[in-house]
Amino acid sequence: MGNLYKDKLSGSRIGIVFGAFAPCHIGHLEVILKAKKENDGCVVIVCGEDGDCGEPFGLDVYRRFRYMRELFADDNQIYVVMAAGQGIPQKETEWESWLEIINLKIADSLQHSDAQKIWYTGKTMQAEALEKKSTDEVHLVDTSLYPVSGLNIRNDALRYFNAIALPFRRAFTKKVLVLGAPSGGKTTLVKDLAKLYSCPYSFEYSRQYQEESNVNDFELDGMDYQRLVTGQFQLNRDTIADPASQGMAILDTDVMVTKVYARLGAEDADYAITPEEYAIVEQSANAFIARQLWDLILVVPPTLKYVDDGYRNMEFSEDAFLTTIHEMMLEEIERSGNLDKVVMLDAKGIGEKDEFSYYARYKQAKEAIDELMGHKQYNSDN
Predict the structure, then answer these.
(1) What is d(CA 58, CA 213) in angstroms, rounded to the nearest whole number?
(2) Which one of 128, 194, 214, 241 is least enclosed by Cβ atoms within 10 Å?
(3) How far is Cα 13 from Cα 38, in angstroms, rounded to an integer?
(4) Taking the complete model, does pTM exceed 0.70, yes or no?
């Protein structure tokens, strides 16, 4: 694997930094930047093997390599390479064979084969092993200013969230999905929760798409739904990766919902999408759904009050139809293997002020999110 649009490193002195980077954090960055600034450039080697410590978090070695390359995409003095199948040696006897492979990776990153290599590490054991097994210069970097490790983050990511390098944060961001039948207060709930928790949130992509394309529900065909599937997935992905995230993102709708509406349309002759087109949309949607990982799914059941927002067809206001949509969404959630992540927002409001249970459901959503995030309940009497 190479670095897109980057020349190999030139110069007579090249810093070398290696690690699992599961995830990359501020301590790693201190070592990498020191190696770059003290030399003509730095080769960063992402090490890993099948089943290593990153995989339970969706961070296999290839994903970590991708994120590291993304992190340094604008820095021509840093060249990122991957050493797949090469974990970091844990025994002294493993270093010689490991260095043979790693040195080939380094040589392929340099314009001049005679460049001096200077190894940088923040771990004493690694520095001592390199000094014994290599003739290269070795620097042990003091990282005590940043007392954090990959293990710390994997065990308690929210506590150390700000120490995680930006591209890697998306793997540790808590993802809260909000689903519900049309015009039941879902979008308002998402916006209110995002304000409360100061977190990024997404919107229902089809709303924007239909407004920009000036098409209504009846006119959406198979190609439109393909765009909606891709657009909703990408919008949610971008929201999860928002640099403003402090460990949580709230997503209004996902590909499962788009699939439900496409299926409803394909079963009704009044809609443009055909059963044949739906079969294609379904395959695409299922591929995206399989890639979506949720920590919490808040489901808003059909409300007693339908609000005509001018977006969905009024046909959707019928109680039986709302119930059908609700049940189809639950079927999709179960099919995706996420039923255990569901909290049904079915709390009932008290009195006329909360006749339609909007506030009761808001409080129920807050309780579920606070439990997910490990927040302590605030005492209003203090």
Answers:
(1) 36
(2) 214
(3) 9
(4) yes
User: Can you give the pLDDT of all 382 residues of the chain as single tens digits?
Assistant: 446 678 999 999 999 999 999 999 999 999 999 999 999 999 999 999 999 999 999 999 999 999 999 999 999 999 999 999 999 999 989 999 999 999 999 999 999 999 999 999 999 999 999 999 999 999 999 998 888 999 999 999 999 999 999 999 999 999 999 999 887 789 999 999 999 999 999 999 999 999 999 999 999 999 999 999 999 999 999 999 999 999 999 999 999 999 999 999 999 999 999 999 999 999 999 999 999 999 999 999 986 554 445 545 545 546 778 889 999 999 999 999 999 999 999 988 887 777 778 899 999 999 999 999 998 655 444 4
Enter the DSSP assignment of 260.
H
Domain positions in the chain are: 13-163, 173-373
Helix residue ranges per DSSP H, the chain: 26-37, 61-71, 95-107, 124-133, 150-155, 166-172, 186-197, 205-213, 222-240, 255-266, 275-289, 319-335, 358-373
- The two structure tokens encoding residue 158: 């929210």
Rounded to whole angstroms, the Cα distance separating 210 from 221 reads 12
28 neighbors 132 (Cβ within 8 angstroms): no
Alpha helix ranges (H) inside 134-271: 150-155, 166-172, 186-197, 205-213, 222-240, 255-266
Residue in the block written with tokens 């928002």? 242
The token pair that represents 336 in the structure block? 């995706």
Name residue 47's amino acid: C
Distance CA 263, CA 51 (A): 38
CATH class of 173-373: alpha beta
Instruction: State residue 315 phi and psi, 5-degree precision.
Output: -55, -30
The CATH number given to 13-163 is: 3.40.50.620
For the chain, the maximum distance between any two Cα atoms, rounded to a whole number of angstroms, is: 81
Query: Is omega for the bond preceding 147 within 30 degrees of 0, making it cis?
Result: no
Helix (H) or strand (E) holding 116: strand 116-121
